[in-house]
Write a structure and sequence with these properties.
eight-stranded antiparallel beta barrel; mainly beta
């Protein structure tokens, strides 16, 4: 009898560091039973001229330990055909993959090292779904809503 591999749920993580104009890193990862992990990363940098988004393809390894999970990732820009690594991440997550700490660095038009950033899969990773507009959603006493 062949053992079935159980597919893991995708991981959607947001990584935040303290302070103004700090980058926000979004990870969308899929891990396999073999200890490999891969996915995409988007770094949003808030600047005075507007946000700058950097997109990466990431691959690496994860190791389940007693009470936590250690994840190491390397990434290259999505449009980089040479696949030169320019993003390096080390995450320490709890065993449920819901919270943790991340240290990462990236080199692009901008280079940055980020230490002790907060990782969350539950508080920040999902955005509210956009539902279709309905007339019933308008407040009843809003006389100007339809002008």
């Amino acid at each position: 009898m062949i053992a079935e591999t159980v597919p893991f749920e995708p991981l959607n993580l947001r990584i935040l560091s303290e302070g103004l104009f700090q980058p926000v890193l979004h990870l969308n990862l899929q891990h396999q039973a073999s200890g490999r992990i891969s996915g995409t990363a988007i770094i949003t940098i808030k600047e005075l001229t507007g946000p700058l988004n950097l997109s990466f393809k990431v691959v690496g390894n994860y190791q389940q330990q007693l009470a936590n999970v250690s994840i190491q990732l390397k990434g290259h820009k999505l449009m980089d055909s040479a696949q030169n690594p320019c993003l390096f991440l080390n995450l320490e997550m709890n065993s449920e993959y819901t919270t943790g700490i991340c240290n990462y660095q990236y080199h692009s038009e901008i280079s940055k090292n980020v230490s002790n950033a907060t990782v969350s899969s539950i508080l920040f990773a999902t955005t509210p779904s956009k539902k279709p507009f309905r007339m019933a959603d308008l407040p009843q006493n809003n006389h100007y809503a339809l002008l």
